[in-house]
Amino acid sequence: TAMGKSAATFDREKAQERLSKLTGGVAVFKVGGASEVEVGERKDRVTDALNATRAAVEEGIVPGGGVALLYATKALENLKTENEDQRRGIHIIQNALKAPTLTIASNAGFDGSTIIGKLLEQDDVNFGFDAAKGEYVDMVKAGIIDPLKVVRTALADAASVSLLFTTTEATVLVNSDDKNKPPSRVPNMDGLGY
């Protein structure tokens, strides 16, 4: 209808106007706080938001809460493999892609495995779990989004680190008993007469 076309044109023009303000304009943010630490924290949040907005303008957005990566596991299900090592590799990647959604749900006090199971049962790629409200929602309509560039870069960086570990002959790990101990600044001088 003419009304629908008019509304679509208006929305498109409004979006282009907003985009031009984001890409070519100058903004001044005045950040305050009770202490320098608080001001620094707020500045960091503004910087993060600005960088996320730039990334979203550059490459677009995907549903947030880890569901974009979660639904990518479905694409790997029917992938043809030639040997057991490839099958294991795909399984490892699928588990890694489920980790963000699982972690977000678990950190909010929900059973992440149950939530992942429910999400993978359906086909709507925007469907996700709003951990703050404890309900299933259309993530994009709810405003729970991630810049595609951020998700893509995180996945590529994780793959790069994983590749580094597979080609490394030895890795040094911290003993789990020593995690809570602060590191010693002075080396142990036992037996040196001090």
From TrEMBL:
<keyword id="KW-0547">Nucleotide-binding</keyword>
<dbReference type="InterPro" id="IPR017998">
    <property type="entry name" value="Chaperone_TCP-1"/>
</dbReference>
<feature type="region of interest" description="Disordered">
    <location>
        <begin position="175"/>
        <end position="194"/>
    </location>
</feature>
<protein>
    <submittedName>
        <fullName>Uncharacterized protein</fullName>
    </submittedName>
</protein>
<dbReference type="InterPro" id="IPR002423">
    <property type="entry name" value="Cpn60/GroEL/TCP-1"/>
</dbReference>
<dbReference type="GO" id="GO:0042026">
    <property type="term" value="P:protein refolding"/>
</dbReference>
<dbReference type="InterPro" id="IPR027409">
    <property type="entry name" value="GroEL-like_apical_dom_sf"/>
</dbReference>
<dbReference type="InterPro" id="IPR027413">
    <property type="entry name" value="GROEL-like_equatorial_sf"/>
</dbReference>
<keyword id="KW-0143">Chaperone</keyword>
<dbReference type="InterPro" id="IPR018370">
    <property type="entry name" value="Chaperonin_Cpn60_CS"/>
</dbReference>
<keyword id="KW-0067">ATP-binding</keyword>
<dbReference type="InterPro" id="IPR027410">
    <property type="entry name" value="TCP-1-like_intermed_sf"/>
</dbReference>
<dbReference type="GO" id="GO:0140662">
    <property type="term" value="F:ATP-dependent protein folding chaperone"/>
</dbReference>
<dbReference type="GO" id="GO:0005524">
    <property type="term" value="F:ATP binding"/>
</dbReference>
<dbReference type="Pfam" id="PF00118">
    <property type="entry name" value="Cpn60_TCP1"/>
</dbReference>
<dbReference type="InterPro" id="IPR001844">
    <property type="entry name" value="Cpn60/GroEL"/>
</dbReference>
<comment type="similarity">
    <text>Belongs to the TCP-1 chaperonin family.</text>
</comment>
<comment type="similarity">
    <text>Belongs to the chaperonin (HSP60) family.</text>
</comment>
